[in-house]
Amino acid sequence: xxxxxxxxxxxxxxxxxxxxxxxxxxxxxxxxxxxxxxxxxxxxxxxxxxxxxxxxxxxxxxxxxxxxxxxxxxxxxxxxxxxxxxxxxxxxxxxxxxxxxxxxxxxxxxxxxxxxxxxxxxxxxxxxxxxxxxxxxxxxxxxxxxxxxxxxxxxxxxxxxxxxxxxxxxxxxxxxxxxxxxxxxxxxxxxxxxx
Length: 195
Prior knowledge:
Order of helices and strands: HHHHHHHHHHH
């Protein structure tokens, strides 16, 4: 096992699926635990990044006050949806599928318009961008930074999309879990981690 695998919580979880699902935890409790730990680690990362951006680059995000909180909440929720989806993929295909999960945020970022406005994208990419909540977040943040008002309609639409993605990710996880239990995949992954 590489040093990266030892440091990755998702890897440790996938190598321990049998123990987790043999415990009295329900799937809802398991997913709630994943979400809670993700929020905690992401919050720590956010605080560190805000501190570094302020100290090193002189950027002050606090001038925008509470206007950015809904944007950050939507990004958190979308990250949770991606995390649940990623956990389901690893549960379905085993620890070897981790290579597929790690690049997902990098593949999504061009469609989210993280570094440039969506209007600069080709039309086909713009269509895909409109089904991703982060694209609304970054467009809305650009509006606020350029002196405009908080785009409430954009935030509401992003909120609806992110709730839909969380629901779909949870359903996908439940489907994969039931398949893994029915076919014995969980026991196979646990046996692989012993070898």
